[in-house]
Design brief:
Tetracycline Repressor, domain 2; mainly alpha
Amino acid sequence: MDASVRTRLSRDDRMEQTLEAAHLLFAERGYASVTMDEIAAAVGVTKPLLYNYFGNKEQLYIACMERAGDSLIQTIAGAVSETANPGDALGAGVRAFFSFLDTDRSAWAVLFDETLPHGGEVFDRVASYRGQIVDLVSASLLAQMPMRRREAAEVEVAALSTALLGAAEGLARWWLRTEAISAEEAAELL
């Protein structure tokens, strides 16, 4: 058989191949710097085929982001739910966050890409993932409070959870840039 003959992939397999290639390009160079032409070339398909599968660059990015975001949320939620003591849930979530970053840095780059345009569906999806993380943190903090105080504390806890996520994102950016400490040590700083 001629080595130059390509095997025809199913639609699902080709979409998976496209998502993997796009994910790596977006992670490496950022949303703003990647073109559909480059993704098509990386996959070995035509640009019209990409548009047929995903509609546009934004929708392709959203598909990449959903995979990364869902994986991050599942990782954090799993770690939080496995703790027997509500007081340990926040620490478990932070450790899971940094462990996830340590094992899948490209997912971080896709989810927290600083080149994303403000506004629009992509921006809204990123905000949704941040909101889910804030909700997980809030739930773990509220679980530590007596039931009678939870309702009154919800606003303050949501504000604190948002601040903690901001601190975690900032620390993660520093850690990924410097690698001066381990992921475990970074998690313990929070």
